[in-house]
Amino acid sequence: MKNTITTSWTWDYSDEISYKHELVSWINEQVVRQISESNKEPEWMLELRLKALNIYNSKSLPSWWPDLSKLDLDSIYYFAKPVWAWDNKTWDDVPENIKKTFDKLGIPEAEKKVLAWVWAQYDSEVVYHNLKDELKDMWVIFDDMTNALQNPKYEEIIKKYFAKSIPLSDHKFASLHYAVWSWGTFLYIPSWVKVKEPLQSYFRMNVKSWWQFEHTMIILEDDSEAHYIEGCSAPKYDKNSLHAGWVEIFVWKNSHMRYSSVENWSLDTFNLNTKRAIVDTNWFMEWVWWNMWSNTTMLYPCSILKWDNSRADHLWIALAGTWQNQDTWAKVIHIGKNTTSNIITKSISKWGWINTYRWLVDIKKTATWSVSKIDCDALLIDADSKSYTIPVIKTDNSDSTVAHEASAGRINPEYLFYLQSRGISEDEAKVMIVNGFISPVVKELPLEYASEMNVLIGMEMEGGF
The whole model's pTM is what? Predict the structure, then answer.
């Protein structure tokens, strides 16, 4: 069965697209106004963009981040609008060359068999979306952000929440994102609505030296439930591209939100994201993450457990390879009483790759009787690879509990001997061990995704031992 996970073919596959405007690298007020006008935005959003641009120009890069010297922000194309209209309601309406790309990604097949809703973004435009009628009848809103902002019914909701969990001044790339963002996901689940089937968005970057700054906003009202899956890919070019998508999640009382992300970027993509959730009373937030390839990834999902009895789980797999630097972490801030966080990360490094895991657990004075458990494991496939763990734990009360467990090492030769004694080849045995290593996270993905993860691991491990 097809699914929406992209494999290595996407690195070398791109489409020939004609655009309405000349592609100009550089970010300035004219480009920002052009983006806002093209998206038919209200005046308050343009004002926010221009304010963010001023902040961006005044900020320097954070000193603690990985080396970004190869990323030339002045050579990135920040605006590209195709010559034809997008936002197609049926799959047959999608232009043939774009349809072939997403056919290879498996989106139409996934929609039929697995997903409740699908929409696909190509560069800075949405090419296709569809929502099941039963969800429309329950007043579920699942639209792209740009289109939703043009709808008077949704504008006030967006204005209420937009940039409220991640401020414009959070860091330099935050202000850049708010200045030039386009499209993304707007998901609104009303009270008492529980969507059992996954809802999905897929982001495809096609232009050379391109950016993609989609903005995702998810709001779950009281006593609701949803599972959102996000997939990303980009072809391989000789010049660097930039992906800096933002995710703001607000889930209120007695609700359950699962956010799953599968990112498989090319080796010339800088993947610099910020994602943050604010958690209400008795609320449960799950982050399930798979990240592989890219030139440099800096991805730090954050859960703010603001009210009593809330909980957050962060489950993560990071695979780093040649010329790659995966710098990732989980950040949980406990504010309410009896809050709980569970962080499980699995990193795999081979061929001299670098995996750096930073995490922060901050238990405030008000967060009495809170519990946090961290499990961080690193698997090094060869002697040249590196794995770093940089933990930070802050506790401002004596009633809470924090448990931290970490390990790093190579494949156990005894495991290899046992499997080989059963007639399994050495390479096959190593792939089995790696799949077993990441299984605590993979098992939390839908079956179709979990199966593809095992296939991808096998492909990436070939010749890497």
Answer: 0.81
| DSSP H or E run through 355 | strand 354-363
Which residues, listed in sequence order, are joined to residue 210 by a DSSP beta bridge? 77
Compare 257 and 98 and report the one with higher pLDDT.
Answer: 257
Closest CA to 195 of 306, 274, 116: 116
Write down the pLDDT at residue 125.
47
> What's the rounded Cα separation, in Å, for the pair 252 and 335?
15
**Residue (of 417, 402, 301) closest to 359 by Cα position:** 301
Contacts for 289 with CB less than 8 Å, ≥ 6 apart: 260, 261, 299, 301, 314, 315, 316, 317, 318, 328, 441
User: Encoding tokens for residue 66?
Assistant: 């990985």
Residue among 133, 104, 99 nearest 116 (CA)? 133
* Spatial separation of the C-alpha atoms in residues 218 and 228, rounded to whole Å: 9
CA angle 240, 348, 236 (to 5 degrees): 20
Full DSSP string of 376-390 = EEEEESSTT-EEEEE
- Amino acid identity, position 228: Y
For 29, how many CA atoms within 13 A lie in the half-sphere containing its CB?
Answer: 5
Task: Name the token pair of 393.
Answer: 């734990």
CA distance 344 to 362: 17
Long-range contacts of 407-413 (CB under 8 A, 24+ apart): 407/376, 407/377, 407/378, 408/377, 408/378, 408/379, 408/380, 409/378, 409/379, 409/380, 410/379, 410/380, 410/381, 411/379, 411/381
Strands 141-144 and 185-189, how do they pair?
antiparallel
In 205-301 the beta strands, taken as DSSP E runs, fall at: 211-212, 215-220, 225-233, 241-243, 246-251, 256-265, 269-279, 284-293, 296-299
Which amino acid type is present at position 330?
A
Question: Mean pLDDT lowest for which of 105-109, 186-190, 208-212, 373-377?
Answer: 105-109
- Whose CA is closest to 275, among 241, 250, 242, 309? 250
Give CA–CA dist 82/94, Å, rounded.
13
19 SS3 class:
strand
Express each pLDDT in 130-170 by its tens digit. 556 677 778 889 888 888 899 999 999 999 999 999 999 99
Q: Which of the pair, 262 or 195, is modelled with greater confidence? A: 195
Rounded to an integer, the average pLDDT of 228-257 is 77
Q: Please tell me what DSSP assigns to residue 188.
A: E
Nearest in space to 348 (alpha carbons), one of 374, 314, 302, 382: 382
